[in-house]
Amino acid sequence: MIEKQPLGLAEELDALANAPATHRGPQCSVGAFLEAADQDVAASLRAALDTDRVTAKAIADTLSRYGDPVTAYTVARHRRRGQSNGCRCER
Ligand SMILES: [Zn+2]
């Protein structure tokens, strides 16, 4: 019995696992904003991000008024950072 397997799948998965640290970045725009912001602004933003009753849209709209446009989707994704469906910012 010979099971058919797609050729090269194992190799491709190995390549993903062994890829250099590029999978850590790049940061999403929320992460970039946090890094560029003053410390007190960053702290306030982190607090808002950690507060569930603050919607991603409210945060996105507020950030967008002060800088580059940020979408609610990006904010929600940043809240899930580190998860498979989140952004690649560091937790
Ligand atoms: Zn992020």
Bound molecules: zinc ion
For the termini, the CA-CA separation is 46 Å
Give me the oligomer status. single chain
Please state roughly what percent of the residues sit in beta strands, choosing from under 5%, 5-15%, 15-25%, 25-35%, 35-45% or over 45%: under 5%
Could you describe the largest sheet, including whether it forms a barrel?
Answer: none
Summed up, the helix count is 5
Class derived from helix and strand content = mainly alpha
Unreliably modeled segments: none
Question: Which key phrases capture this entry?
Answer:
91 residues; elongated; binds zinc ion; mainly alpha; 0% strand; 5 helices
Description:
The protein has 91 residues and is mostly helical. It has one domain. It is 54% helix and 0% strand. The model has no long low-confidence stretch (mean pLDDT 87). The protein starts with 8 loop residues before the first helix and ends in a 12-residue tail after the last helix. It has helices at residues 9-18, 29-36, 39-50, 56-66, 72-79. The structure holds zinc ion.
